[in-house]
Amino acid sequence: MDKDFGSAKSPQTREGLQYHIRCKLGDVSRYVLLPGDPDRVQKIASFWDKSWLVARNREFVTYSGVYKNVSISATSTGIGGPSAAIVVEELLRIGADTFIRVGTTGSIQDFIHVGDLIISMGSVRLDGASRQYVRIEYPAVAHFEVVLALIEAAESLGVRYHVGITASTDSFYTGQGRPGFRGYFQSWMKNIIPDLRAAYVLNLEMESATIFTLANVYGVRAGGVFAVIADRVRDEFVEGIGVDNAIRVANESVRILSEWDLLKGEKKNFYPSLIRG
Length: 277
Ligand code: URA
Prior knowledge:
The protein is of the alpha/beta class. Helix content is 28%, strand content 27%. The protein has helices at residues 38-45, 81-93, 144-157, 189-198, 208-217, 243-264, and strands at 31-34, 50-57, 60-67, 70-75, 98-107, 117-126, 140-141, 161-169, 201-205, 221-231, 236-237. Helix 2 (81-93) packs parallel to helix 5 and helix 3 (144-157) crosses helix 6. The model has no long low-confidence stretch (mean pLDDT 97). The site of uracil (URA) has 10 residues, from strand 5, strand 9 and strand 10.
């Protein structure tokens, strides 16, 4: 059925429905979890006290709900920077200001094991989408409040986690040093993991550099927690391991952030002694 999205420059319906995610103002919380996988959105929502499907279009599925008295949403980004940028752009237009990526990842350090979680402090920008926003020297940092809330959540849930730098690529295979079809190989692929490992990068995934860059460019908050399903040191791959823990940590971090946001009152930033009052 035809649907009029008004302007080609800024496509949304008269009611404000965004072209890709098909959500409008009032549909989502300020706190939005961002998994890549559309099927993971319902899984995330299954941990909430109340939840409902808001919209489903292409790879973009959105649920909203309530978790421990906090309004919360989750939207899938699909895989990679371009679709993640679309989701962040459209969620910003309808009031979201805090983004928490919940994903899976490959670890590249020997002290990290499958099933562990990684909380990202920032991402090496090996993506393409973030370059269409700002020059490459601009840092893709996670927001300190989101990082701190994720750490607090991981500690309170007693899960094994690491905190550090992530690298985001636009290619799961060649970009992450895996041979392409029929063993396709380029000489630089040999060095990508050793070089990042030497620089103490913890893990590889495909969306956080774009999400973090956009969040910084627009002055909002973003962070990310990843379940390690691939161990690139010992060459192990276990689908799904640690994902429930990543979801629990992400949900709990929203409760913590909402508490800190209340404590902040007129202050712009959270800092630990605000808790003492
Ligand atoms: N996601 C990635 O981008 N890489 C991995 O190795 C695992 C999950």
